[in-house]
Amino acid sequence: MLALLMPLLFATQAADKQAEEAAVAAVAACEQVFSKNQDTNARTEAMGTMAQTQHEKVLAKLLIYLSDKDKGVKMGAVASTLSFQGATPELKRLANKNLLRSLESGINVKDVDFRVAVTNALGTFADEASVTTLKTLLDDKSLKVSMAAVNASVAMKQKPLLEALMQQQRECEKTMKASANVQFKGKKPTSAKKDSDTPDPEDVKNERAATMVTLIPPAVKELTGQDLKTGAEMDVWWNKNRSSFNFPPK
User: Fold this and answer.
1) Which of 39, 118, 234, 249 is the most exposed place for a label (fewest CB within 10 A)?
2) Rounded CA gap, 27 and 46, in Å?
3) Which residue segment(s) compose the domain that 51 sits in?
4) Is the CA virtual torsion 203, 207, 210, 213 positive or negative?
5) What are the tens digits of pLDDT across the range 75-95?
6) Between vectors from CA 182 to CA 181 and to CA 188, what angle results, nearest 5°?
7) Statement: the pTM of the whole predicted model exceeds 0.85
8) Quick one: DSSP state of residue 210?
């Protein structure tokens, strides 16, 4: 039996070595472009070419580029990481993990466009490991990021994210109600504008809430098949159906 298995083992080891050598060569070729060319497009193309060799060493290099000082390079790194969607389950998990890690990088914390791109990519990978992060992104102060998180939550089809959408609907409704009460009483918001070029934080918060309450009900309907318009309606339905609910097939 052992004699039969040995050729298979050697063949597997040889294939792994060949794949690693190809990855090392792909990484080296990309690094060479970066060392000689400052052009964002050239670097992005080099990353895309490197990512065609799907290996953990390539993902390790892309993780570095996900925090590059050049925004265009970072965005290109997201696209290259996303190309691992058709890779082996292990590589897909690693690619998704890299995207999650990139959100924690200091250079990316306030980069809304980058966070939107990563959030969209997380929805595409639809890895359960992203649930906790997506719940946080749903509550992000940036409307663009929150909107991307709504779409990603629909793609994920996870009960914790469905519940987070419903909670977000309730919270946004409360924000809008509080804003309406302030306006009705003629009170000035505590964070009145000091600079006409600087958005009022309260205005930004209210605008976000007003938009989110129009986006969440269609998302909840897509996930549940139920036409629930308000947080209260969602609560009533979910309390009755939580234990027996299963996502309807497409």
Assistant:
1) 249
2) 9
3) 22-125
4) negative
5) 999 999 999 999 999 999 999
6) 170
7) yes
8) H
The answer to whether 81 and 115 are in contact (CB under 8 A) is no
Give a three-class secondary structure readout of 15-76.
HHHHHHHHHHHHHHHHHHHHHHCCCHHHHHHHHHHHHCCCCHHHHHHHHHHCCCCCHHHHHH
Measure the CA–CA gap between 69 and 181, rounded to whole angstroms: 44
pLDDT digits (tens, 9 = 90+) for 162-184: 999 999 999 999 999 998 765 54
- pLDDT for the residue numbered 66: 98
Give 194 or 26, the one with higher predicted confidence. 26
Give the mean pLDDT of 28-40: 97
pLDDT value at 133 more than 90: yes
Domain boundary residue, one of 76, 98, 125: 125
Token output for 76? 């290109």
CB-based burial, 93-123: b 16+ in 10 Å, e otherwise: bbbbbbbbebbeeeebeebeebbbbbbbbbb
Please tell me what DSSP assigns to residue 230: S
Which tokens belong to 203?
């205005």
Q: 99 and 43 in one domain?
A: yes
Examine the domain organization and report whether 134 and 250 are in the same domain.
Answer: yes
Both 113 and 134 in one domain: the answer is no
> What does the block give as tokens for 23?
């990855």
Percentage of the chain exceeding pLDDT 90: 82
Q: Residues 57, 99: one domain? A: yes
Domain boundary among 125, 143, 176: 125
The full DSSP string for 109-127 is TT-HHHHHHHHHHHHHHT-
